[in-house]
Amino acid sequence: MSALPLPPPTGFDPAQLRWINRYAELGPAFGRRQGGLALPDARWVAVSEGAAAELGWAGDWWLHPQALAAHSAGPSWPGSTPMATVYSGHQFGSWAGQLGDGRALLLGEIDTPSGPREIQLKGSGLTPYSRMGDGRAVLRSSIREFLCSEAMAGLGIPTTRALAITASPLQVRREGPETTSVVTRTAPSFIRFGHFEHFCHHGQPAALRQLFDFVLEHHYPECRDAPHPAAALLESVSRRTAELMAQWQAVGFCHGVMNTDNMSILGLTIDYGPFGFLDGFDPGHICNHSDHQGRYAYARQPQVAYWNLHALAQALVPLVEGSDEEISEILGAALEPYRELFPHQMDALMGAKLGLQSRRDEDRALLDDLLGLMSATQVDYTLCWRQLADFSSADDGGTGPVRDLFLNRPAFDAWAARYRSRLQAEGSVDAERRARMNHVNPRYVLRNHLAELAIRRSQAGDDSEVQRLARVLERPFDEQPEHAAYAALPPDWAQTLEISCSS
Fold first, then answer.
1. CB burial readout 366-376, b (16+ within 10 A) else e
2. I need a labelling partner for 427 at 20 to 30 A (CA). Which of 115, 155, 186, 300 fits?
3. In this structure, is residue 2 part of a structural domain?
4. Which residues does ATP bind (predicted)?
5. Which one of the listed residues 41, 101, 225, 261 is annotated catalytic?
6. Is 238 a member of any domain?
7. Is 261 in the active site?
8. pTM, whole model, 2 decimals?
9. Domain tally for the chain?
10. What does the pLDDT look like over 369-426, one tens digit per residue?
Protein backbone atom coordinates (compact mmCIF):
# COMPACT_ATOMS: atom_id res chain seq x y z
CA MET A 1 0.00 0.00 0.00
CA SER A 2 1.85 3.06 -1.22
CA ALA A 3 2.55 6.09 0.96
CA LEU A 4 0.82 4.81 4.11
CA PRO A 5 2.84 4.57 7.33
CA LEU A 6 3.85 1.16 8.59
CA PRO A 7 3.62 1.13 12.39
CA PRO A 8 3.95 -2.16 14.22
CA PRO A 9 0.72 -4.19 14.38
CA THR A 10 -1.41 -3.80 17.50
CA GLY A 11 -2.69 -7.35 17.49
CA PHE A 12 -6.09 -6.40 15.99
CA ASP A 13 -7.89 -9.67 15.29
CA PRO A 14 -11.18 -9.88 13.35
CA ALA A 15 -11.90 -13.11 15.25
CA GLN A 16 -12.24 -11.01 18.42
CA LEU A 17 -14.94 -8.69 17.08
CA ARG A 18 -18.18 -8.90 19.04
CA TRP A 19 -20.90 -9.43 16.41
CA ILE A 20 -24.54 -8.75 17.21
CA ASN A 21 -26.28 -9.50 13.86
CA ARG A 22 -29.67 -8.19 14.99
CA TYR A 23 -30.96 -7.42 11.50
CA ALA A 24 -30.16 -10.88 10.16
CA GLU A 25 -32.11 -12.38 13.03
CA LEU A 26 -35.32 -10.74 11.80
CA GLY A 27 -35.75 -13.61 9.37
CA PRO A 28 -35.68 -14.56 5.69
CA ALA A 29 -38.25 -11.93 4.65
CA PHE A 30 -35.60 -9.26 5.18
CA GLY A 31 -32.96 -10.51 2.78
CA ARG A 32 -30.78 -13.39 1.66
CA ARG A 33 -27.89 -14.69 3.72
CA GLN A 34 -24.83 -15.28 1.56
CA GLY A 35 -21.10 -14.71 1.39
CA GLY A 36 -19.21 -12.42 -0.89
CA LEU A 37 -17.05 -13.14 -3.90
CA ALA A 38 -13.47 -12.20 -3.05
CA LEU A 39 -11.49 -9.80 -5.21
CA PRO A 40 -8.48 -11.55 -6.77
CA ASP A 41 -5.02 -10.05 -6.22
CA ALA A 42 -6.41 -7.33 -4.00
CA ARG A 43 -4.43 -4.34 -2.77
CA TRP A 44 -5.15 -1.58 -0.28
CA VAL A 45 -6.03 1.80 -1.80
CA ALA A 46 -6.81 3.85 1.32
CA VAL A 47 -8.07 3.54 4.88
CA SER A 48 -9.76 6.07 7.15
CA GLU A 49 -8.32 6.51 10.61
CA GLY A 50 -11.36 8.56 11.61
CA ALA A 51 -13.81 5.83 10.65
CA ALA A 52 -11.63 3.26 12.41
CA ALA A 53 -11.59 5.39 15.56
CA GLU A 54 -15.42 5.36 15.59
CA LEU A 55 -15.20 1.57 15.76
CA GLY A 56 -12.59 1.70 18.52
CA TRP A 57 -9.89 0.29 16.22
CA ALA A 58 -6.26 1.37 16.27
CA GLY A 59 -4.91 3.21 13.26
CA ASP A 60 -2.83 0.25 12.12
CA TRP A 61 -5.67 -2.28 12.14
CA TRP A 62 -5.22 -2.87 8.41
CA LEU A 63 -1.81 -4.49 9.03
CA HIS A 64 -3.42 -7.60 10.48
CA PRO A 65 -2.65 -10.54 8.16
CA GLN A 66 -6.35 -11.25 7.57
CA ALA A 67 -7.46 -7.64 7.12
CA LEU A 68 -6.88 -7.31 3.37
CA ALA A 69 -8.81 -10.47 2.54
CA ALA A 70 -11.63 -9.52 4.90
CA HIS A 71 -12.06 -6.09 3.29
CA SER A 72 -11.92 -7.58 -0.20
CA ALA A 73 -15.00 -9.75 0.43
CA GLY A 74 -12.98 -12.72 1.59
CA PRO A 75 -14.32 -15.06 4.32
CA SER A 76 -12.36 -13.55 7.21
CA TRP A 77 -15.17 -12.23 9.40
CA PRO A 78 -15.86 -15.05 11.89
CA GLY A 79 -19.05 -14.47 13.80
CA SER A 80 -20.68 -12.28 11.16
CA THR A 81 -23.86 -13.18 9.28
CA PRO A 82 -23.47 -11.67 5.80
CA MET A 83 -26.70 -10.87 4.00
CA ALA A 84 -28.08 -8.78 1.17
CA THR A 85 -31.13 -6.88 2.39
CA VAL A 86 -34.26 -6.38 0.33
CA TYR A 87 -36.02 -3.05 -0.10
CA SER A 88 -38.08 -1.23 -2.71
CA GLY A 89 -38.49 2.41 -3.61
CA HIS A 90 -39.43 5.29 -5.84
CA GLN A 91 -36.76 6.20 -8.38
CA PHE A 92 -36.99 9.57 -10.12
CA GLY A 93 -40.52 9.89 -8.77
CA SER A 94 -41.85 6.59 -10.12
CA TRP A 95 -42.45 3.35 -8.25
CA ALA A 96 -39.60 0.99 -9.11
CA GLY A 97 -40.77 -2.06 -7.17
CA GLN A 98 -38.33 -4.43 -5.52
CA LEU A 99 -34.73 -3.32 -5.36
CA GLY A 100 -32.32 -4.33 -2.61
CA ASP A 101 -28.59 -4.64 -2.01
CA GLY A 102 -27.49 -5.45 -5.54
CA ARG A 103 -23.77 -5.12 -4.90
CA ALA A 104 -23.53 -4.87 -1.12
CA LEU A 105 -23.44 -7.25 1.79
CA LEU A 106 -24.39 -6.32 5.32
CA LEU A 107 -21.93 -8.27 7.44
CA GLY A 108 -23.83 -7.46 10.61
CA GLU A 109 -23.30 -5.22 13.61
CA ILE A 110 -20.29 -5.08 15.87
CA ASP A 111 -20.16 -3.75 19.38
CA THR A 112 -18.12 -0.52 19.60
CA PRO A 113 -17.44 2.10 22.28
CA SER A 114 -20.09 4.32 20.65
CA GLY A 115 -22.69 1.55 20.35
CA PRO A 116 -23.51 -1.04 17.67
CA ARG A 117 -22.27 -0.20 14.18
CA GLU A 118 -23.19 -2.01 11.00
CA ILE A 119 -20.40 -3.02 8.61
CA GLN A 120 -21.17 -3.38 4.94
CA LEU A 121 -19.07 -4.37 1.94
CA LYS A 122 -19.96 -2.67 -1.33
CA GLY A 123 -18.78 -4.38 -4.49
CA SER A 124 -18.76 -7.90 -3.06
CA GLY A 125 -20.44 -9.68 -5.98
CA LEU A 126 -23.82 -10.88 -7.19
CA THR A 127 -26.83 -11.01 -4.88
CA PRO A 128 -30.46 -11.94 -5.59
CA TYR A 129 -31.12 -8.20 -5.97
CA SER A 130 -28.44 -7.41 -8.54
CA ARG A 131 -31.04 -7.41 -11.31
CA MET A 132 -29.05 -7.12 -14.55
CA GLY A 133 -25.84 -6.05 -12.80
CA ASP A 134 -22.72 -7.97 -11.85
CA GLY A 135 -22.64 -7.01 -8.17
CA ARG A 136 -19.24 -5.37 -8.47
CA ALA A 137 -18.16 -1.80 -7.75
CA VAL A 138 -15.58 -0.13 -9.95
CA LEU A 139 -12.54 1.65 -8.57
CA ARG A 140 -13.76 5.00 -9.88
CA SER A 141 -17.02 4.96 -7.92
CA SER A 142 -15.40 3.45 -4.84
CA ILE A 143 -12.84 6.24 -4.60
CA ARG A 144 -15.57 8.85 -4.97
CA GLU A 145 -17.64 7.25 -2.21
CA PHE A 146 -14.66 6.87 0.11
CA LEU A 147 -13.54 10.45 -0.33
CA CYS A 148 -16.97 12.02 -0.05
CA SER A 149 -18.06 9.97 2.97
CA GLU A 150 -15.00 11.11 4.83
CA ALA A 151 -15.26 14.67 3.50
CA MET A 152 -18.82 14.94 4.79
CA ALA A 153 -17.72 13.62 8.17
CA GLY A 154 -15.04 16.32 8.23
CA LEU A 155 -17.69 18.93 7.45
CA GLY A 156 -19.78 17.70 10.37
CA ILE A 157 -22.65 16.53 8.14
CA PRO A 158 -24.38 13.26 9.18
CA THR A 159 -23.15 10.47 6.94
CA THR A 160 -22.30 6.85 6.60
CA ARG A 161 -18.55 6.33 6.86
CA ALA A 162 -16.07 4.64 4.54
CA LEU A 163 -13.49 2.59 6.44
CA ALA A 164 -11.37 1.32 3.55
CA ILE A 165 -11.03 0.70 -0.18
CA THR A 166 -9.40 -2.33 -1.71
CA ALA A 167 -8.84 -2.77 -5.44
CA SER A 168 -8.19 -5.55 -7.90
CA PRO A 169 -7.03 -5.90 -11.51
CA LEU A 170 -10.26 -7.84 -12.17
CA GLN A 171 -12.22 -5.99 -14.84
CA VAL A 172 -15.94 -5.49 -15.44
CA ARG A 173 -17.70 -3.49 -18.12
CA ARG A 174 -19.47 -0.18 -17.59
CA GLU A 175 -19.23 2.43 -20.33
CA GLY A 176 -15.96 0.61 -21.00
CA PRO A 177 -13.77 -1.89 -19.14
CA GLU A 178 -12.94 -0.83 -15.58
CA THR A 179 -11.16 -2.45 -12.66
CA THR A 180 -13.07 -3.53 -9.56
CA SER A 181 -12.99 -2.50 -5.94
CA VAL A 182 -14.66 -2.99 -2.57
CA VAL A 183 -15.57 -0.23 -0.12
CA THR A 184 -16.09 -1.10 3.53
CA ARG A 185 -18.85 1.15 4.88
CA THR A 186 -20.08 1.64 8.42
CA ALA A 187 -23.13 3.29 9.98
CA PRO A 188 -25.41 2.88 12.97
CA SER A 189 -27.87 1.53 10.40
CA PHE A 190 -28.25 1.34 6.63
CA ILE A 191 -32.07 1.07 6.86
CA ARG A 192 -33.77 3.24 4.25
CA PHE A 193 -37.22 4.61 3.54
CA GLY A 194 -37.34 1.90 0.90
CA HIS A 195 -37.21 -0.89 3.48
CA PHE A 196 -40.56 0.29 4.86
CA GLU A 197 -41.97 0.81 1.37
CA HIS A 198 -41.06 -2.73 0.41
CA PHE A 199 -43.09 -4.45 3.08
CA CYS A 200 -46.02 -2.04 2.84
CA HIS A 201 -46.43 -2.14 -0.94
CA HIS A 202 -45.81 -5.87 -1.21
CA GLY A 203 -48.55 -6.71 1.28
CA GLN A 204 -46.39 -7.97 4.15
CA PRO A 205 -47.91 -6.28 7.22
CA ALA A 206 -46.28 -8.64 9.72
CA ALA A 207 -42.82 -7.92 8.34
CA LEU A 208 -43.60 -4.19 8.23
CA ARG A 209 -44.57 -4.28 11.90
CA GLN A 210 -41.43 -6.30 12.69
CA LEU A 211 -39.21 -3.75 10.93
CA PHE A 212 -41.00 -0.88 12.65
CA ASP A 213 -40.57 -2.44 16.09
CA PHE A 214 -36.89 -3.10 15.33
CA VAL A 215 -36.24 0.52 14.34
CA LEU A 216 -38.05 1.86 17.40
CA GLU A 217 -36.29 -0.47 19.80
CA HIS A 218 -32.78 0.16 18.52
CA HIS A 219 -32.86 3.68 17.04
CA TYR A 220 -35.94 5.61 18.19
CA PRO A 221 -36.88 4.26 21.64
CA GLU A 222 -38.34 7.67 22.57
CA CYS A 223 -41.17 7.04 20.08
CA ARG A 224 -42.44 3.81 21.61
CA ASP A 225 -44.72 5.39 24.23
CA ALA A 226 -46.17 8.09 21.99
CA PRO A 227 -49.95 8.03 21.35
CA HIS A 228 -49.18 7.13 17.72
CA PRO A 229 -45.67 5.60 17.58
CA ALA A 230 -45.58 5.47 13.77
CA ALA A 231 -46.39 9.18 13.58
CA ALA A 232 -43.78 9.89 16.23
CA LEU A 233 -41.21 8.02 14.16
CA LEU A 234 -42.20 9.94 11.03
CA GLU A 235 -41.90 13.23 12.89
CA SER A 236 -38.43 12.34 14.19
CA VAL A 237 -37.26 11.26 10.72
CA SER A 238 -38.75 14.46 9.26
CA ARG A 239 -36.77 16.57 11.70
CA ARG A 240 -33.52 14.77 11.02
CA THR A 241 -34.08 14.99 7.28
CA ALA A 242 -34.83 18.72 7.49
CA GLU A 243 -31.59 19.31 9.34
CA LEU A 244 -29.66 17.22 6.84
CA MET A 245 -31.13 19.05 3.84
CA ALA A 246 -30.24 22.41 5.36
CA GLN A 247 -26.66 21.25 5.85
CA TRP A 248 -26.47 20.00 2.26
CA GLN A 249 -27.80 23.25 0.85
CA ALA A 250 -25.59 25.44 3.02
CA VAL A 251 -22.39 23.72 1.94
CA GLY A 252 -23.47 23.40 -1.71
CA PHE A 253 -23.73 19.60 -1.81
CA CYS A 254 -25.77 17.91 -4.54
CA HIS A 255 -26.64 14.26 -3.95
CA GLY A 256 -27.73 13.54 -7.49
CA VAL A 257 -30.05 10.58 -6.96
CA MET A 258 -32.44 11.21 -4.06
CA ASN A 259 -34.61 8.16 -4.63
CA THR A 260 -36.51 6.87 -1.60
CA ASP A 261 -34.22 3.85 -1.47
CA ASN A 262 -31.33 6.30 -0.99
CA MET A 263 -32.91 8.06 2.01
CA SER A 264 -31.68 7.04 5.45
CA ILE A 265 -34.15 6.42 8.26
CA LEU A 266 -31.53 8.00 10.55
CA GLY A 267 -31.10 11.16 8.52
CA LEU A 268 -27.65 10.22 7.22
CA THR A 269 -26.13 11.02 3.85
CA ILE A 270 -26.13 7.62 2.19
CA ASP A 271 -25.22 6.07 -1.17
CA TYR A 272 -22.70 8.37 -2.82
CA GLY A 273 -23.14 8.02 -6.55
CA PRO A 274 -23.40 10.96 -8.98
CA PHE A 275 -22.88 13.59 -6.27
CA GLY A 276 -21.13 16.93 -6.63
CA PHE A 277 -20.27 20.06 -4.71
CA LEU A 278 -21.16 23.31 -6.44
CA ASP A 279 -18.32 25.09 -8.20
CA GLY A 280 -19.97 28.11 -9.80
CA PHE A 281 -23.21 28.88 -7.97
CA ASP A 282 -26.17 27.73 -10.06
CA PRO A 283 -29.42 26.88 -8.22
CA GLY A 284 -30.47 24.76 -11.20
CA HIS A 285 -27.27 22.73 -11.25
CA ILE A 286 -27.82 19.05 -12.11
CA CYS A 287 -24.89 16.92 -11.00
CA ASN A 288 -26.27 13.63 -12.34
CA HIS A 289 -25.87 13.25 -16.09
CA SER A 290 -28.67 10.65 -16.02
CA ASP A 291 -31.16 13.09 -14.47
CA HIS A 292 -32.54 14.34 -17.77
CA GLN A 293 -35.51 16.17 -16.21
CA GLY A 294 -33.49 17.83 -13.46
CA ARG A 295 -35.60 16.29 -10.71
CA TYR A 296 -32.64 16.29 -8.32
CA ALA A 297 -31.19 19.69 -9.18
CA TYR A 298 -29.55 21.50 -6.28
CA ALA A 299 -32.43 23.90 -5.55
CA ARG A 300 -35.01 21.10 -5.71
CA GLN A 301 -33.39 18.85 -3.11
CA PRO A 302 -35.36 20.19 -0.10
CA GLN A 303 -38.70 19.68 -1.88
CA VAL A 304 -37.66 16.21 -3.06
CA ALA A 305 -36.82 15.25 0.51
CA TYR A 306 -40.30 16.36 1.57
CA TRP A 307 -41.81 14.27 -1.25
CA ASN A 308 -39.80 11.29 -0.08
CA LEU A 309 -41.07 11.78 3.47
CA HIS A 310 -44.61 11.62 2.08
CA ALA A 311 -43.68 8.29 0.49
CA LEU A 312 -42.44 7.08 3.87
CA ALA A 313 -45.67 8.29 5.47
CA GLN A 314 -47.65 6.23 2.97
CA ALA A 315 -45.62 3.16 3.91
CA LEU A 316 -46.45 3.72 7.59
CA VAL A 317 -50.23 3.90 7.04
CA PRO A 318 -50.83 0.23 8.03
CA LEU A 319 -49.20 0.96 11.40
CA VAL A 320 -51.65 3.70 12.39
CA GLU A 321 -55.12 2.97 13.74
CA GLY A 322 -58.15 5.02 12.74
CA SER A 323 -60.28 5.95 9.78
CA ASP A 324 -58.63 6.96 6.52
CA GLU A 325 -59.29 10.60 7.35
CA GLU A 326 -57.85 10.28 10.85
CA ILE A 327 -54.74 8.47 9.61
CA SER A 328 -54.17 11.11 6.96
CA GLU A 329 -54.46 13.86 9.57
CA ILE A 330 -52.15 12.10 12.05
CA LEU A 331 -49.40 11.42 9.53
CA GLY A 332 -49.83 14.79 7.86
CA ALA A 333 -49.22 16.50 11.18
CA ALA A 334 -46.05 14.43 11.63
CA LEU A 335 -44.70 15.86 8.37
CA GLU A 336 -45.26 19.48 9.33
CA PRO A 337 -42.06 19.81 11.38
CA TYR A 338 -40.10 19.46 8.15
CA ARG A 339 -41.83 22.51 6.65
CA GLU A 340 -41.14 24.50 9.80
CA LEU A 341 -37.65 23.27 10.67
CA PHE A 342 -35.99 23.35 7.25
CA PRO A 343 -36.34 27.13 6.66
CA HIS A 344 -35.43 27.79 10.31
CA GLN A 345 -32.26 25.73 9.96
CA MET A 346 -31.40 27.37 6.65
CA ASP A 347 -31.76 30.83 8.18
CA ALA A 348 -29.48 29.83 11.05
CA LEU A 349 -26.84 28.22 8.83
CA MET A 350 -26.80 30.96 6.23
CA GLY A 351 -26.72 33.65 8.90
CA ALA A 352 -23.68 31.93 10.36
CA LYS A 353 -22.09 31.82 6.90
CA LEU A 354 -22.58 35.58 6.74
CA GLY A 355 -20.97 35.92 10.15
CA LEU A 356 -24.10 37.40 11.75
CA GLN A 357 -24.73 36.85 15.45
CA SER A 358 -28.29 38.16 15.48
CA ARG A 359 -31.24 37.88 13.13
CA ARG A 360 -33.14 40.76 11.58
CA ASP A 361 -35.97 40.94 9.09
CA GLU A 362 -33.73 42.37 6.38
CA ASP A 363 -31.26 39.48 6.58
CA ARG A 364 -33.23 37.32 4.16
CA ALA A 365 -33.07 39.99 1.45
CA LEU A 366 -29.37 40.52 2.15
CA LEU A 367 -28.72 36.81 1.66
CA ASP A 368 -30.99 36.42 -1.36
CA ASP A 369 -29.40 39.37 -3.11
CA LEU A 370 -25.90 37.96 -2.57
CA LEU A 371 -27.00 34.60 -3.94
CA GLY A 372 -28.57 36.38 -6.90
CA LEU A 373 -25.29 38.14 -7.66
CA MET A 374 -23.43 34.85 -7.33
CA SER A 375 -25.88 33.09 -9.62
CA ALA A 376 -25.80 35.80 -12.30
CA THR A 377 -22.21 34.95 -13.24
CA GLN A 378 -21.84 31.63 -11.40
CA VAL A 379 -19.39 32.87 -8.79
CA ASP A 380 -17.55 30.02 -7.11
CA TYR A 381 -19.69 29.03 -4.13
CA THR A 382 -17.03 27.73 -1.75
CA LEU A 383 -14.46 30.44 -2.49
CA CYS A 384 -16.99 33.25 -2.17
CA TRP A 385 -18.08 32.29 1.32
CA ARG A 386 -14.55 31.65 2.49
CA GLN A 387 -13.21 34.94 1.14
CA LEU A 388 -16.14 36.88 2.57
CA ALA A 389 -14.61 36.26 6.00
CA ASP A 390 -11.88 38.77 5.09
CA PHE A 391 -14.41 41.54 4.44
CA SER A 392 -13.80 44.65 6.54
CA SER A 393 -16.67 46.28 8.41
CA ALA A 394 -14.77 49.59 8.63
CA ASP A 395 -16.03 52.36 6.34
CA ASP A 396 -12.64 52.59 4.64
CA GLY A 397 -11.60 48.99 5.12
CA GLY A 398 -12.24 47.65 1.64
CA THR A 399 -13.94 44.41 0.63
CA GLY A 400 -11.00 42.05 0.51
CA PRO A 401 -10.40 39.49 -2.27
CA VAL A 402 -14.05 38.42 -2.50
CA ARG A 403 -14.86 41.40 -4.76
CA ASP A 404 -12.61 40.02 -7.49
CA LEU A 405 -14.88 36.99 -7.88
CA PHE A 406 -17.74 39.19 -9.20
CA LEU A 407 -17.82 40.44 -12.76
CA ASN A 408 -20.43 43.06 -11.89
CA ARG A 409 -18.31 45.02 -9.44
CA PRO A 410 -20.74 47.97 -9.02
CA ALA A 411 -23.53 45.58 -8.07
CA PHE A 412 -21.31 43.83 -5.56
CA ASP A 413 -20.17 47.18 -4.14
CA ALA A 414 -23.79 48.17 -3.57
CA TRP A 415 -24.42 44.92 -1.77
CA ALA A 416 -21.19 45.29 0.20
CA ALA A 417 -22.36 48.66 1.51
CA ARG A 418 -25.50 47.04 2.89
CA TYR A 419 -23.50 44.17 4.39
CA ARG A 420 -21.07 46.60 6.04
CA SER A 421 -23.97 48.55 7.51
CA ARG A 422 -25.48 45.33 8.86
CA LEU A 423 -22.20 44.30 10.47
CA GLN A 424 -21.77 47.72 12.04
CA ALA A 425 -25.32 47.64 13.39
CA GLU A 426 -24.54 44.60 15.53
CA GLY A 427 -21.11 45.80 16.54
CA SER A 428 -19.29 43.06 14.66
CA VAL A 429 -15.60 42.63 15.48
CA ASP A 430 -13.83 41.63 12.29
CA ALA A 431 -11.29 39.25 13.82
CA GLU A 432 -13.95 37.43 15.82
CA ARG A 433 -16.32 37.30 12.87
CA ARG A 434 -13.57 35.98 10.62
CA ALA A 435 -12.90 33.12 13.03
CA ARG A 436 -16.60 32.27 13.24
CA MET A 437 -17.03 32.33 9.46
CA ASN A 438 -13.96 30.21 8.83
CA HIS A 439 -15.40 27.66 11.23
CA VAL A 440 -18.53 27.19 9.10
CA ASN A 441 -17.37 28.06 5.58
CA PRO A 442 -14.99 25.31 4.41
CA ARG A 443 -11.83 26.08 2.52
CA TYR A 444 -11.79 22.58 1.02
CA VAL A 445 -14.60 20.50 -0.46
CA LEU A 446 -14.42 17.45 -2.70
CA ARG A 447 -14.64 19.10 -6.08
CA ASN A 448 -15.22 16.71 -8.97
CA HIS A 449 -11.93 17.53 -10.67
CA LEU A 450 -9.99 16.73 -7.49
CA ALA A 451 -11.68 13.35 -7.27
CA GLU A 452 -11.05 12.76 -10.97
CA LEU A 453 -7.33 13.42 -10.66
CA ALA A 454 -7.07 11.04 -7.71
CA ILE A 455 -9.02 8.40 -9.65
CA ARG A 456 -6.80 8.65 -12.72
CA ARG A 457 -3.65 8.21 -10.69
CA SER A 458 -5.10 5.29 -8.76
CA GLN A 459 -6.19 3.60 -11.97
CA ALA A 460 -2.55 3.89 -13.07
CA GLY A 461 -1.46 2.18 -9.85
CA ASP A 462 -0.55 5.21 -7.70
CA ASP A 463 -2.91 5.56 -4.74
CA SER A 464 -1.00 8.37 -3.02
CA GLU A 465 -3.30 11.11 -4.30
CA VAL A 466 -6.38 9.37 -2.88
CA GLN A 467 -4.66 9.19 0.49
CA ARG A 468 -3.39 12.77 0.35
CA LEU A 469 -6.75 14.22 -0.68
CA ALA A 470 -8.51 12.26 2.05
CA ARG A 471 -6.21 13.78 4.66
CA VAL A 472 -6.88 17.30 3.35
CA LEU A 473 -10.64 16.75 3.48
CA GLU A 474 -10.47 15.56 7.08
CA ARG A 475 -9.77 19.20 8.06
CA PRO A 476 -11.86 21.22 5.59
CA PHE A 477 -11.98 24.40 7.69
CA ASP A 478 -8.22 24.66 8.33
CA GLU A 479 -6.04 26.79 6.08
CA GLN A 480 -3.47 24.03 5.30
CA PRO A 481 -1.21 26.37 3.27
CA GLU A 482 0.82 23.42 1.97
CA HIS A 483 -2.35 22.22 0.22
CA ALA A 484 -3.63 25.59 -1.02
CA ALA A 485 -3.89 24.26 -4.60
CA TYR A 486 -6.81 22.07 -3.51
CA ALA A 487 -8.80 25.21 -2.70
CA ALA A 488 -8.17 26.99 -6.01
CA LEU A 489 -10.72 27.65 -8.73
CA PRO A 490 -11.36 24.51 -10.79
CA PRO A 491 -9.64 24.28 -14.18
CA ASP A 492 -11.64 24.79 -17.37
CA TRP A 493 -11.65 21.07 -18.16
CA ALA A 494 -13.60 20.41 -14.94
CA GLN A 495 -16.70 21.81 -16.64
CA THR A 496 -16.70 18.87 -19.05
CA LEU A 497 -16.86 16.20 -16.32
CA GLU A 498 -20.08 14.20 -16.34
CA ILE A 499 -21.16 11.98 -13.46
CA SER A 500 -23.95 9.45 -13.96
CA CYS A 501 -25.69 6.76 -11.92
CA SER A 502 -23.31 4.22 -13.44
CA SER A 503 -20.51 5.84 -11.49
1. bbeebbebbbe
2. 155
3. no
4. 100, 102-103, 122, 134-135, 185, 192, 271
5. 261
6. yes
7. yes
8. 0.95
9. 3
10. 999 999 999 999 999 999 999 999 998 878 889 999 999 999 999 999 999 999 999 9
